[in-house]
């Protein structure tokens, strides 16, 4: 193995491969540390940072902290899976039909629409790095929203903004905006909750159907879909994210 204090080429290669594999293992595996309690983790979530201590303490019992290694799959496209995740530390990637759609980091929620509606997952979510998340069951999420309606409003707003970003960025007139202008416009969007059989006029407006189903000209439309410049009838209780047309 040794020759004049040197390691033979084949042995050196084995050693380097071993070191690289160990470094990758350490990089991709979450550290074996005790996690902070759920209440402390919730306080780091961007849309809960203004919540007071008593409120966080009250809702913390409904959440569970979990850790994932890089490459672990949290949600599978096309499957019915329980619960919603809030990313606390690390990053995830979202893919649809194998195509990368987005990368998300701390403070983002994933799986909220399917958790609320019991629909199949529309995308696969994979840990891009070692990941710390908070998980709540679909049943627990519904109870939480029944008790605190403002949480439901926040989640629909987050979902609507995210869907609008995915679905409108390549559609005129939004595709003519800079990224900064586009993000500013979709943040102006509002959530509209509609009852079954209700009609809504979207003349000079663009909306994203994020929950439920609608009918237009005898065509049934399922979420997530872009609705614009027409009159739509709700087939069921539905949630839309509406944006005024650019002038």
Question: Major sheet: order of its strands?
Answer: 3-10-5-8
Count of DSSP strands: 18
What is the CATH architecture term of the largest domain? Sandwich
Query: CATH superfamily membership of the largest domain, which one?
Result: Jelly Rolls
Under CATH, the topology of the largest domain is which?
Jelly Rolls
Structural class: alpha+beta
Q: How many distinct domains?
A: 2
**SSE order:** EEHHHEEEEEEHEEHHHEEEEEEEE
How far the N terminus sits from the C terminus, by CA atoms, comes to: 75 Å
User: Level of helix content?
Assistant: 25-40%
What is the average of the pLDDT values? Answer: 84
Kindly estimate the percentage of residues that lie in beta strands according to DSSP: 25-35%
What is the number of helices? 7
Radius of gyration from CA coordinates: 23 Å
Main sheet specs: 4 strands, antiparallel
Low confidence ranges? none
Structure write-up:
By secondary structure, the protein is α+β, with helices and mostly antiparallel strands. The protein has two domains: 38-147, Jelly Rolls; 174-244, Jelly Rolls (Sandwich). It has helices at residues 9-28, 38-42, 53-60, 112-117, 138-147, 149-168, 179-186, and strands at 2-3, 6-7, 64-68, 73-75, 84-89, 92-96, 99-104, 109-110, 124-127, 131-136, 190-194, 199-201, 205-211, 214-216, 219-221, 225-228, 231-234, 238-244. The strands form five sheets. A four-stranded antiparallel sheet has the order 3-10-5-8. A four-stranded antiparallel sheet has the order 4-9-6-7, with no helix packed on it. Strands 11-18-13-16 form a four-stranded antiparallel sheet, with helices on one face. Helix 5 (138-147) crosses helix 6. The longest helix is centred in the N-terminal third of the chain and has 20 residues, at 9-28. The radius of gyration is 23 Å and the shape is globular. The relative contact order is 0.11. The model has no long low-confidence stretch (mean pLDDT 84).
């Amino acid at each position: 193995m040794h020759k004049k204090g040197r390691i033979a080429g084949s042995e050196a290669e084995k050693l380097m491969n071993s070191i690289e594999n160990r470094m990758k293992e350490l990089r991709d595996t979450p550290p074996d540390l005790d996690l902070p309690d759920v209440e402390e983790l919730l306080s780091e979530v961007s849309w809960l940072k203004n919540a007071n201590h008593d409120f966080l303490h009250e809702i913390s019992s409904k959440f569970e902290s979990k850790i994932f290694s890089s490459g672990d799959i949290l949600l599978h496209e096309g499957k019915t899976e329980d619960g919603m995740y809030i990313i606390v530390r690390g990053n995830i990637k979202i893919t649809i039909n194998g195509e990368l759609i987005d990368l998300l980091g701390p403070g983002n929620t994933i799986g909220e629409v399917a958790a609320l509606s019991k629909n199949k997952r529309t995308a696969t979510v994979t840990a891009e790095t070692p990941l710390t998340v908070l998980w709540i069951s679909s049943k627990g999420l519904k109870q939480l929203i029944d008790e605190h309606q403002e949480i439901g409003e926040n989640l629909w707003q987050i979902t609507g903004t995210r869907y609008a970003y995915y679905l409108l960025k390549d559609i005129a007139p939004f595709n003519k905006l800079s990224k900064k202008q586009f993000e500013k416009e979709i943040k102006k969007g509002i959530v509209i909750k509609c009852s079954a059989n209700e009609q809504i006029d979207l003349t000079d407006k663009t909306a994203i159907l994020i929950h439920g189903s609608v009918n237009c000209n005898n065509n049934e439309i399922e979420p997530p879909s872009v609705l614009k410049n027409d009159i739509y009838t709700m087939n069921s209780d539905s949630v839309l994210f509406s944006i005024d047309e650019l002038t």
